[in-house]
Amino acid sequence: MTASSTDSIRKEIHLRAPRTRVWKALADADEFGTWFGMKLEGRFVPGQPVFGRITHPNYQHIHLEMRIERMEPESLFSYRWHPYPMDAAKDYSQEPMTLVEFRLEAAEGGTLLRVVESGFDRLPPERRDEAFRMNEAGWAGQLPRIERHVTA
């Protein structure tokens, strides 16, 4: 399923893996970085930032901050970040962050994973459309990556 407004991106995937496995892939910073394509420094702890960089070819110049919001075991993992920070010379720290939420539900033969990224309407107008478009495409690519990771 894919549904979006101008403010939020919504994706979901049925994973043929137990919730405990999907949760570990989300809540463990090393595992998250492995399937997402990031090198993160530190652990995920609600209320704490985690810093890192993207490891995908052509994106290694992107350094990022994730502010962990909520971790409800096997149910909800959420964080805030600056979407699509492509210009290494630009300081994005004063811009609003979007909220990324992963919700897990038991499903026939595995786990239903829903991803919502919201808050695009608060971004500066000159960045809003491109950040939305690129992150929507990014999530479409990330869901198969987590699927391969948890079913390997």
From TrEMBL:
<protein>
    <recommendedName>
        <fullName>Activator of Hsp90 ATPase homologue 1/2-like C-terminal domain-containing protein</fullName>
    </recommendedName>
</protein>
<dbReference type="InterPro" id="IPR023393">
    <property type="entry name" value="START-like_dom_sf"/>
</dbReference>
<dbReference type="InterPro" id="IPR013538">
    <property type="entry name" value="ASHA1/2-like_C"/>
</dbReference>
<feature type="domain" description="Activator of Hsp90 ATPase homologue 1/2-like C-terminal">
    <location>
        <begin position="16"/>
        <end position="149"/>
    </location>
</feature>
<comment type="similarity">
    <text>Belongs to the AHA1 family.</text>
</comment>
<dbReference type="Pfam" id="PF08327">
    <property type="entry name" value="AHSA1"/>
</dbReference>
